[in-house]
Structure formats: structure tokens, C-alpha cells
Design a protein that fits this description.
There is one protein chain. With about 220 residues, this protein is an alpha+beta fold. The protein is built from 8 helices and 5 strands; from the N terminus they run βαββαβαααααβα. Strand 2 and strand 3 form a beta hairpin. Helix 1 packs antiparallel against helix 2.
Length: about 220
């Protein structure tokens, strides 16, 4: 049975998620993380898009993109293919590396992106890997907070978080406040292959466009 089309828009925000097949690790050693991050960096030059947040966990990853002309599917296909070939070659693994095709959440605008970035950066804490999110090596939180120069993240991240030290401190507090918050409403988004995060109207309009595209694909 063919899969339906994704929610595809130009200049759209996406939160992208995927995990290893059978929830098995996809990052076994430091080299694995480094290869994945290098590919993320290479993709910035290959395709026109922005990366605004990432977190690589041992058996899954979270990424936040803003697309332009290139579709999210094309970007992710290149990433998944390169990493799978590397992983199979390096670890003498055969067959699929990822559990399924990636899941994506279409994000309405900046405030909803910020909510999802909180979830991304608190992942290692919620999983019990670290107590402080800035101590986790394989996320972009230090770039986002201005503690490291921007390298992986797009310069436009300052539009989302703010350009001043004060605004970065406010964003940092926003992240840490999530340690005592119930983020289960975000977890529920990953139960679907496609989801939206925004107002009910945004969700309705996106769904209508999705259904029109699905009908044309039948």
C-alpha cells in the first residue's frame, strides 16, 4: 500500500524524528556521531535550508529544519542514505538501519518551534543521560545559548531566540523551566508519521492540503 504524501510547504518549519530499527542504537561510538554531524553540515551547502536545532540520542535523533525550495523528504533521504551506508560498512551491519521512514511535525511558527526546541534539548535529561542539558555533547544547545559560535545552526537562529545576552538568558530559563513541566503533549506528536503543531486552524488547513495531495496520489 503506497504511503501518502507528506505535509510539504516551502519556507516551512519541521521537527524531524527517527530511531534505529527495533529501537536499536544508531550511534555506538563517537565516530558515528561525528559522521552524522558532518553530513548535517554538508547538507547545508548541498541544499538550501536552515537547521535550527538538533539532538542525537543513542538510538534516535531530533532535528528542526526550515525548508525553502528543497523538500524535507529530499534532505532527509540524503542524510539517511549516507548514514545507513556508513553504519552498515563500519559496524558490519546488514539491512535497514532506521525503523521506518522518518516522522515529521509541521510547525506553525516561531513560538511553536521554541516549544519543540525545549523538548529536543531536554531529551538527554529526561532519558537520564545527563542532569544538565548543556552537558550533553551531541545537541546544539550551546550554540543556541551563545556559549559556542554558530557552526551547525543557521545564523537566523538569533531571530528566534534573540540577539542579546538578555534574550539568550530568557531562552535558557525557558528551556530549564521545562524540567518541571509535563511534555507528554509533545510525545504524542511522534505517534503519527505526520503531525502538525500549531493552532486548530493551522492543523485543519494543513490537513486539507494533505488530503488533496493524497487523493491525487491514488
Amino acid at each position: 500500500m503506497p504511503r501518502g504524501p507528506r505535509f510539504v510547504f516551502e519556507n516551512a518549519f519541521y521537527h524531524v524524528f527517527n530511531r534505529g530499527i527495533n529501537k536499536q542504537p544508531i550511534f555506538i561510538n563517537r565516530q558515528d556521531y561525528s559522521f552524522f554531524l558532518k553530513k548535517l553540515s554538508d547538507l547545508k551547502r548541498e541544499f538550501d535550508h536552515s537547521l535550527y536545532a538538533y539532538c542525537l540520542m543513542p538510538n534516535h535523533f531530533h532535528l528542526s529544519f526550515q525548508t525553502r525550495k528543497t523538500s524535507i523528504s529530499k534532505i532527509m533521504a540524503s542524510l539517511a542514505t549516507s548514514f545507513s551506508m556508513y553504519f552498515n560498512r563500519t559496524h558490519n551491519h546488514f539491512g535497514p538501519v532506521f525503523q521506518n521512514r522518518f516522522k515529521s511535525i509541521l510547525i506553525q511558527d516561531d513560538p511553536y518551534f521554541l516549544q519543540l526546541s525545549k523538548y529536543i534539548y531536554l531529551n538527554p535529561v529526561k532519558a537520564g543521560i545527563v542532569k544538565d542539558p548543556v552537558d550533553y555533547k551531541y545537541s546544539s544547545i550551546r550554540e543556541a545559548l551563545g556559549r559556542e559560535p554558530l557552526y551547525f545552526l543557521d545564523n537566523d537562529i538569533t531571530r528566534l531566540i534573540g540577539e542579546t545576552k538578555e534574550s539568550q538568558k530568557e531562552y535558557e530559563k525557558f528551556i530549564y523551566d521545562g524540567l518541571s513541566e509535563d511534555l507528554s503533549h509533545v510525545e504524542e506528536l511522534f505517534e503519527k508519521e505526520e503531525a502538525t503543531f500549531g493552532t486548530p486552524r493551522f492543523s485543519t488547513l494543513s490537513q486539507k492540503k494533505y488530503l488533496r495531495r493524497k487523493q491525487r496520489s491514488i
